[in-house]
Every structure is written in C-alpha cells, then in structure tokens.
Amino acid sequence: MSTYSTLMDFLFTETIKMLAGATNAPVLVTKTFGGIARQVCENVLPFYQPAGAGGLKNVHDDVVFFNVTYTDDPYNKQVESVYDGNVDNALTTVSMQFTRALRVSWTCCGDNCYEWAERLRIMLFDADVRTDFAAQNISLIPTVNEPEFAPEILGQEWLHRYDLFANFYQSASLVKTQPAVYAARVIIETSEGVEAIC
Length: 198
Known about the structure:
This protein is α+β, with helices and mostly antiparallel strands and 198 residues long. Helix content is 19%, strand content 43%.
C-alpha cells in the first residue's frame, strides 16, 4: 500500500473519531462487497471521489470530504544519513532520515458544516488524537486557522460549506545497503620515499 493510501485510510478513521459527539455525527457501518466485509461511512469521503460535492443529492446532508497533499517546506530539504556496519563487510547500511510536510484539508458541507469543521479544528489538539497522529510519526503544526466559509450553489440552492486546513510534519526514513570499503592499503610516501605501508 502506498504512503498516500495509508495516510488517507488513517485520516478516514481519525476524522470519524474526531467528529464523534457532533450533531448528526458520521458513523461507521459494515457493508459486504463481493463477499468481503468493509467498514464504510457515507458521510466521510475522500476528496477525489468521482462525484465530488456536486454528487450530493441534498444540500442539507452533512458530509465531510478530506484530502492530504505533500507541500514544500524548509524542513523537507534536510536529510540526515547514518551509516552502520553490515553482516557482510563489503556492504554498509545507510539510514536516511527526513521530514515530510503535509497539508490536510477537510471540506464540510450541509446544515451542521460549521459545527463539524469547528469540532475537527478543536479535536486536533485533543491528547488522544495527538497520540493517534504520533503513532503515525505525524506532528501537528499548531497554527490551525478558523474554518473558512465557502458556500457554493448546488442545483437551485446554496450549499453551506466550511473548509479547514491543517499542516503537519511526518518523520520518515529510507534504509538501503550499498557497497563499502572493507579494507584499504595505505602507503605514506614523502619526498624521501616510502615511509610506511598500512
């Protein structure tokens, strides 16, 4: 599974968890697809789903779309490499540690969209939610702005919509092996000739 897919799956379940207790809160249900049971929630959708907000049938339905994008940041330009020995002396193990900068967006639509967006913003600071993010090596950058009102027309009615954005850092690493020099013959030579051979 790709890094992006893993993050989207995590955001799906975490969004539902953060909205618990809100008016008309989304609930996970188990449905069977081709004999395989999956947990789904029709009110929490990835941003890239085919219909988008235009696929909503009713402007009063409470729905939240979510997405994660990788952003440019001074921190993701720093890479630290640590070299360690290997069982095979002709190889070395290199651990490259770096930071990903992430921008998560939630688009809340429907009658309770402001309550949902505000709850998501506040719950980002909840200790349990922060622990969940920390388990994914993700840390919130705590300057989370208020949700932005962005209504749009759907059919002949206005769809109430609030957008919330939050930035995060995720620590990541890449481990690889590469050839190493096990032994080298060193000759120290001066103008008077060979002084030493190591």
